[in-house]
Each structure stands twice: as structure tokens, then as C-alpha cells.
Design a protein that fits this description.
mainly alpha, 5 helices
């Protein structure tokens, strides 16, 4: 009787740690994989992400790992598309307004879905603070 309860408890703990939301552990892992791919494609143009581009990025731009040391890192990542200079480059479909005319366009606009935004957050959740 104790072993089945212990097994269920361990499974529940693993599910919670992995971010189980009804979609299964594999969904949480898939979200992190998608998030990593999106970060590689879009964010590493400016930011250093240690396991992707340890020698890349722009020197004046904080690395993802450095930002995770801030007490409000989660909030910053949740609204990153609102924080300068992101509004001139990134838009979240269905959330962000069209790019304002007065903001310079440094590159082709990046349009992300809400699910892609969540996948990026899932990936960042798994990064270690440095």
C-alpha cells in the first residue's frame, strides 16, 4: 500500500516541477524546446544566452541569465515586448498594438503568438541564474 502511494506522490511532484498543466510532461518539454528555438532565432540577435550563444549578443544588452538574478525577472520576461526597444521590433499577435509609426524599425518585425510567448517563458524558467 505504501509503494503505490509513494509512486503517485513522486509522479505528482515530477509533474508539478515539469509544469504539468493537463497537457502532460511531454507538453512542458515541447514548450521548452519551442521556446529555445524561438530564443535562438530571435533573442540571440541582441542577448547572450549561455547555452546558445555564449560569445554573441550586444555588449550593452543583458544576458538572459543575468536578468534572472533580478527579483522581478519573471515580470520583465512576461512583458518584454512592451519594454524598449522591443516595441519597435516585436509584437504579440492579439495582444500588442501595431508598431507605432514613430518607432524606428531596425529589422523586420517579429510577430509571435501567445503560445510562442509562453514557450519562451517556459524556456527561460529552466535557465540557471548566473
Amino acid at each position: 500500500m505504501i509503494k503505490p502511494l509513494l509512486t503517485k506522490f513522486i509522479l505528482l511532484a515530477v509533474m508539478l516541477i515539469a509544469g504539468y498543466d493537463g497537457g502532460g510532461i511531454s507538453t512542458a518539454i515541447a514548450d521548452q524546446d519551442l521556446g529555445r528555438a524561438l530564443v535562438r532565432q530571435h533573442c540571440t540577435r541582441c542577448h547572450v544566452v549561455a547555452d546558445i550563444n555564449p560569445y554573441g549578443g550586444i555588449g550593452s544588452t543583458p544576458s538572459f541569465e543575468a536578468m534572472k538574478t533580478l527579483s522581478d525577472w519573471r515580470e520583465r520576461f512576461e512583458i518584454f515586448y512592451l519594454l524598449p526597444p522591443h516595441p519597435s521590433v516585436i509584437r504579440i499577435d492579439g495582444i500588442s498594438e501595431e508598431r507605432p509609426e514613430n518607432l524606428p524599425a531596425f529589422s523586420h518585425e517579429i510577430l509571435l503568438t501567445i503560445d510562442e510567448h509562453e514557450a519562451i517563458l517556459s524556456y527561460v524558467d529552466g535557465l540557471e541564474k548566473k
